[in-house]
């Protein structure tokens, strides 16, 4: 898997005290790992810092609430990692 | 401080939205029923109220940064340290700054000083949401006037 996933998994393991070896690319942060919204703020903080981005949590939440997206698109870790890569690429393109 | 109404900030001393910092003052009352129980013969300001004071100072900074469009709500407190006592009659200076501005949340670092001496500090997380009720927005506007919120600091460029 990508190094992005490895970094995200490490962040989750350290932030939420979840054994690293239980975190896979297929893990759903909420449904499988039991991460709640408050804990996810700490994860978002660490991801924002590590990657120099700002995860658009409000936009994602709105899309899920409006039925325009599923939580799997953003919170399954392989998908989250892909979104992070996109944000990093977009930031690099606009720099 | 109006402890009974949880209005803990008296005055904004400095607000710098560009630098993302705020300094406020709060006068601890000399007498209050809180001090009768906390503690007899040794009245001190409860640590939880000092944390709330730091949260409210941080909150005004966040309200300023959102130009009064959003309300910050306390979500988490980390590394809160009560370093020495705060007594009735103390004049508190509270300084706060942004540690991280995320999407729908923010983290601040805040500290309370008395006479230039650090008394407590904390890192605080807030969820930031649209005002859930117009009454709350009106209340915050009134509070802003009471504590001398510098409206020019959030005026449109």
UniProtKB/TrEMBL annotation, chain A:
SUPFAM superfamilies: ACP-like. Keywords: Phosphopantetheine, Phosphoprotein. Residues 2-88 form the Carrier domain. This is Acyl carrier protein. Gene3D superfamilies: ACP-like. The keyword Heme does not apply. It comes from the Bacteria.
């Amino acid at each position: 898997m990508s190094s992005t996933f490895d970094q995200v998994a490490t962040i989750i393991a350290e932030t939420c005290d979840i054994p690293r070896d239980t975190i896979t690319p297929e893990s759903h942060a909420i449904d499988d790992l039991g991460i709640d919204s408050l804990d996810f703020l700490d994860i978002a903080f660490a991801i924002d810092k590590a990657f120099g981005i700002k995860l658009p949590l409000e936009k994602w939440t709105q899309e899920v609430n409006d039925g325009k997206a599923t939580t799997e698109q953003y919170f399954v870790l392989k998908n989250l990692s892909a979104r992070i890569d996109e944000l990093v690429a977009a930031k690099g393109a606009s720099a | 401080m109006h402890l009974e109404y949880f209005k803990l900030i008296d005055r904004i001393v400095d607000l710098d939205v560009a630098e993302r910092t705020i300094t406020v003052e709060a006068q601890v009352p000399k007498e209050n029923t809180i001090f009768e129980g906390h503690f007899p013969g040794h009245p001190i300001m409860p640590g939880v109220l000092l944390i709330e004071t730091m949260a409210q100072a941080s909150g005004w900074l966040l309200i300023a940064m959102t130009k009064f469009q959003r309300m910050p709500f306390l979500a988490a407190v980390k590394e809160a340290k009560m370093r020495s006592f705060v007594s009735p009659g103390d004049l508190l200076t509270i300084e706060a700054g942004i540690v991280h501005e995320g999407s729908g949340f923010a983290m601040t670092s805040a500290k309370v000083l008395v006479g230039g001496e650090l008394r407590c500090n904390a890192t605080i997380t807030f969820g930031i949401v649209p005002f859930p009720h117009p009454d709350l927005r009106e209340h915050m506007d009134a509070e802003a006037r009471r504590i001398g919120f510098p409206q020019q600091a959030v005026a449109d460029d």
